[in-house]
Amino acid sequence: MADHKHHSEHQSQHQMSTLSPNSQESAAQVKETAQSTGDIIYTCPMHPEIRRSQPGDCPICGMSLEPLLPTLEDENPELKDFSRRFWITLPLTIVVTVLAMFGHQLSWFETSTQTWVELVLSTPVVLWAGLPFFIRGWHSVRNRSPNMWTLIGLGTGAAFVYSVIATVFPQVFPEAFLSMGRVSVYFEAAVVIISLTLFGQMLELRARSQTSAAIKSLLGLAPKTARRVADDGTEEDIPLNHVHKGDKLRVRPGEKVPVDGVVQDGTSLIDESMLTGEPLPVRKKTGDKVIGATMNTSGALLIQAEKVGSATVLSQIVQMVAEAQRSRAPMQRMADLVAGYFVLAVIGIAIITFFVWGLWGPEPGWVYGLINAVAVLIIACPCALGLATPMSIMVATGRGATKGVLFRDAAAIENMRKVDTLIIDKTGTLTEGRPGFDHAAGTHDYEATEVLRLAASLDQGSEHPLAAAIVSAAKEQGLSLAAVQDFDSESGIGVSGTVEGRRLILGNTTLLQAMGIDASPLKQTADALREQGASVMFLAVDNSLAGLLSVTDPIKPNTQEAVKNLQEANIQIIMATGDGLATAKAVASELDIDEVHGEVKPEDKLNLVADLQSQGRIVAMAGDGINDAPALAKANVGIAMGTGTDVAMNSAQVTLVKGDLRGIAIARNLSEKTIINMKQNLGFAFIYNALGVPIAAGLLYPITGMLLSPMFAALAMSLSSASVVFNALRLRRKT
């Protein structure tokens, strides 16, 4: 069976990859090519590995493909098509059903005439309204991927073909098939199953569209146009997708910032609450960065576009949410394996049911056998089983996005609830990450201002928040900075480079010790600053200690609450930071964190994660810097701050858009609720099929004397799929 599944997936990718003449193009290549050309990518809700540049049906499960990224358009073509087929043929279904059930009492037609009337009225229902189901069923056979459409196609097809033959050539049937003067026909079973399946698909499609509500709300944040300023000063409104990197754009009061960029002229207050959650607008001036889709509340700004299209922060969030919604949960693997065997088993049970009733059942045994076999095929459709986890994942990731928590994939949702240990960085994670310069001190050879000037000159090549604070302080004091050459970053512990012909090293005690530089002359000063919670860096010039600089980084307002909530949830919190141990302990003491590791290198954080995992711990790592990336990737769940570096976010499984640690508790709660919801869906699907198949086969007939009509089987099948979707939607209210 494993070989069969592998073959099916390989064949599906081969068939669905239609963007290139290369028949071996993978699904990943389809996605990459489509993104580069701007085409829409279509995927399957139940099998996210399927990628195609055009709409169609999934070759594995037969479900209709839908856009990888939802659009703001509410119209679903498949929903519109199914609705049209359903409503046009519903009157025919009703008439055929009334004739089949009450025709002999109403005496509208002679018996033979009534059979032909039912045939004429049933044909458009089965052959036109049910055509999509037969096409999907044929594809499942051709692709050797039996699924729900295999069963529906076999069930309705068998009932209809049998009834047509019984109408046109009644003489070929033995007397056992006669009932009330004619060969029994079951046109009503075929048309009712088709209509109920259409109705069930309509309910499911409407419900599935609601799972994309979060992404649609994010898409709705972006403005439709931008006001471009030409080189000659003229201005014009252009569609947002016509904006290019480097364009000058005017943002007037009350307008949304169109794309990510940097302010060239003007000052204003920008409402960034849609990303940061901060209720107060942020003042922006020349040189400050602005984010697309945020609201300009007061003054006019002239900005230069830096990131456009799929590169903007908003687009990356949308893409991350969409990818997470399409990822497959580990729990789904079991359901997929069971479903593959299940369809084949159901076909076998239907065949056995037909012959057991025909050979040993009461008269007319073969008629009972046919009807019960059709009921087995219909009621056992594994659609509910296939939808059980994807629907929960789609709702959970959308719900998380609205709360500022982005899950990279379904595995992150499933693993988050298991976390019992959290390793957390300090700068930018527990603290604001926007430190301010505090103090500079020099040895007898260097004045404090010279220490600041040299350090700022060296730090011009660094992206670290501490470096930005030092450079900003030097510029505010009017110090003239020199160019830096041969800049090198000792990730997490310091930097080095050449300034004015002198070799400079700026970093913590660990870096100086590695370089063989004695920092003891300033140890007492450094310790006093660290006890106040300041971060201390030593400056060495040509391998001799020149001075130190201290920077303070305030703790985020919500950190205390977040730490307390996590500790109450029995999660052990460990601080691991590249800052000095004294500084780290000062912050930890304020936050009631017991275990602290200071002056750690990236490999030390990585080893700490590995050591805890070897003890059987389920470890989450929260950080925002490049130096956190290895540990983020190694942890069972990596949690990145959305306000941090791209490298950190790319290494993590969960991103907190607002940089608010309270999002960890939100993510854990959402994880717990989602897993419960997935288990409910899977349990319901298994129980439904376990009970439905034997009842449809007639197992209870000797006890109750009742059989399950294929029409009721079709209704139960449709309602089971819809119930799974609606149960998943409850996550929007419970979290």
Automatic annotation (TrEMBL):
The chain crosses the membrane at residues 86-104, 116-135, 147-173, 185-203, 338-360, 366-389, 682-701, 707-729. It is found in: Cell membrane. Residues 1-32 are annotated as: Disordered. Residues 18-32 have a biased composition (Polar residues). Residues 221-321 form the P-type ATPase A domain. Its main location: membrane. It comes from the Bacteria. Keywords: ATP-binding, Cell membrane, Membrane, Metal-binding, Nucleotide-binding, Translocase, Transmembrane, Transmembrane helix. Pfam families: E1-E2_ATPase (PF00122), HMBD (PF19335), Hydrolase (PF00702). One of its GO terms (biological process) is copper ion homeostasis. One of its GO terms (cellular component) is plasma membrane. Gene3D superfamilies: Calcium-transporting ATPase, cytoplasmic domain N (3.40.1110.10), Calcium-transporting ATPase, cytoplasmic transduction domain A (2.70.150.10), HAD superfamily/HAD-like (3.40.50.1000). Residues 42-67 form the Heavy metal binding domain. One of its GO terms (molecular function) is ATP binding. InterPro entries: ATPase_P-typ_cyto_dom_N (IPR023299), ATPase_P-typ_P_site (IPR018303), ATPase_P-typ_TM_dom_sf (IPR023298), ATPase_P-typ_transduc_dom_A_sf (IPR008250), ATPase_P-type_domA (IPR059000), HAD-like_sf (IPR036412), HAD_sf (IPR023214), HMBD (IPR045800). It is a multi-pass membrane protein. Belongs to the cation transport ATPase (P-type) (TC 3.A.3) family. Type IB subfamily. NCBIfam families: ATPase-IB1_Cu, ATPase-IB_hvy, ATPase_P-type. This is Copper-translocating P-type ATPase.
